[in-house]
Amino acid sequence: MALVDSLTSALESMPGGGIILTSMDALADWSRGQSLWAMPMGTACCAMELIAASFSKFDFDRLGTFPRPDPRHVDVMIVAGTITKKMQPAVRRLYDQMAEPKYVIAMGNCAVSGGIFYYDTYSVVRGVDQFMPVDVYIAGCPPRPESLEDGVLQLRAQIRTRSMAEGRSYDRDLALPGLETDRAGTTDAVRPVGDTPLAPRSGAGEKL
Amino acid sequence: MAVEVESTRPVIAEDGRRVDELVVNIGPSHPSTHGVCRIITHLDGEVIVKAEPVIGYLHRGIEKMAENRTYLQVVPLTDRLDYVGSMYANWAYCRAVERLAEIRVPERAEYIRVIVCELQRIASHMMGVGSSGADTGAATAFIWAFEVRERIVDLFDELCGSRLTYNYVRPGGVSMDLPDGWIEKCREVVKWAPERLLELDALFFGNFIAGERMKGIGVLSEADAIAWGASGPTARGSGVLFDIRKNDPYSVYPRLDFRIPVGENGDCFDRSRVKLLEAIESCHIIEQALDQIEPGPVMTAGLPRLLRPRAGDAYDHIESARGSLGVYLVSDGSPRPYRMKVRSPAFCNLQLLGKLAPGHTVSDLVVILGSLDPVFGEVDR
Amino acid sequence: MTRVEGESGLEYLRRKLCSVYPDLCPLFSIEYADGVLLVPREALHGAAVNLKALGFERFGFVTAVDRGEYFELVCRLQSAEFGAGLFLKAEIPRDDAVSDSFTDLWPAADWHEREVYDLFGIEFTGHPDMRRILLPDDWVGHPLRKDYHDDSVIPRPDYI
User: Fold this and answer.
1) What is the pLDDT of residues B299-319, one digit of tens each?
2) Across B82-110, average pLDDT
3) Testing the interface with C: which of B68, B328, B331, B379 to mutate, by most C Cβ within 10 A?
4) Architecture of B62-380 per CATH?
5) Is C130 a member of any domain?
6) What is the distance between the alpha carbons of residues C15 and B378, in angstroms, rounded to a whole number?
């Protein structure tokens, strides 16, 4: 009943305004962003903030984001924490098991770039974008739950504006690249900036 | 559906191998492994015959990284060891540096360290007790526990600007003095918390279901707890009265009056409940420390920015929320540690999983793992 | 033998050690308020047996330090009786990095020894399951050795 009562206000914010016969893909894209079930891929410190975010004080549920630790049920994988070389195949496998369309949020500096574990360490993968595509990067060590909420809202905006008809390639399957990238071995490495939110993703698998 | 256990007889192949065993791999990404632990379980029906934890999925090489950083630069790394209780690793490391470089810490700094670490103990145990609740299907307990934890995290947030990785305890003292009005806020929280914790005790541990799920599960005897190097609530749940705050007193703990809760049966119920009682005891410790604290400096004056302790090695340990957490430092006289080793209590306690799990079902395995309360940042380092 | 009034745990430990095992007495020293017992490599296990009998019922950890020519094996023992800890140390030559296992005395040593094997390449004879523990099984090399080289490591720029 609640939906029927608030139908008019819901239509207002729908693409195309008050006309319910909007283009199918716009409706699909709009609605897809409203209920992003998340797979908490919490490996380290950021997982604590992920838990805190889903509890009463920050209440993630009101964004439609519900933690569901099963790759087949979820839309977005939130990688929260350091990924080591030993862990990397497991993360990639879980990503492969997710159903399309799927999105990835890299939460925290370790998932973005290795963060504090960028230098000197022999076992850390420097960012999850080395082995799978990432849609939203959230900086912080660890990011506050508010940042995570902002990240989810940004992902939602991306999904809404990126039409599925326009040919956003879902065929983003990557061959598992080796751990050595051309960044390795250079000390003056500069973090590549992530995709701008609206730019079509071109070959996410190519070397950064 | 439960499998009839009595009816299964071991089926032995010609080479002596059991062929009716089912091997189930749990993890490394599993919601009930409290992080990135993989457990290879061998099952006979639903009963565990053998459980082998596989760790190292979060091994970041912190000990190697420390060898290329100055003594002060290592402090942020120690935050990431035990990320549920960052203050402990900060403190244990700083104590080892202070012992090595022969630094005396001002009294006010010692009191602040005790206050923040006891607050951390409450926050950390709330995570432990709460996740025990989640493991046994009592999600309410988790959410109640998090209410207490969030209030403490807010205090830390105000104290050092971070919710989780504090980098607050530094060699020679603490990084900054308490902000104005913080003591009153802290006093308010520790006055409010015990009542709340007792409520949680009645809600969760007083519940019939929690008793059914946790009593008699994963019983660890007192002798085994000592032989297997268990410490902290894991050992005290089995009745081992060993707490470094009492057995090898450090800082200002001798001036504070507190008791050590000890369990009787050594099962999951006792291990978890000891944590809750310890948290209540911590509130009393903080109240006393807040009464005794005097104004003064919080950092040793005249400390060089680049510490160069003389060659040698030193070890110091403190009682963290998980047990005796120690840091072993070797210096060669240069401004960087030659070797840092962290004696992690979670690592030692987790060894027990393979010993405690056989004979129980898979659903109990989760409860046993939760009661050992491992934090994988510290297990794998 | 009991502790006399006013005696520190370490003094009591020294007194008891010297009276029960006089041959271990000259190897004992006190460094940074911790007892250290530096024994020859062959005597390591025997000394551990004696120390366990003396009252060191708890095993703290075992680790190693790469000193170039040799590895220093460091074993921390704890005792409720003395209230003090003790370091049992031995030098292990680099080209023959083998030591006796402590697992028969303290089962707690199990994972610690696997860790030392993983990160330093010191093997423990008598250990029931000598495998890597932290790193993947197919890892090459032992990272905490000072001469470990890995192309994927990016050295940190030296700011100090």
Assistant:
1) 888 888 888 888 888 888 899
2) 89
3) B328
4) Orthogonal Bundle (1.10)
5) no
6) 37
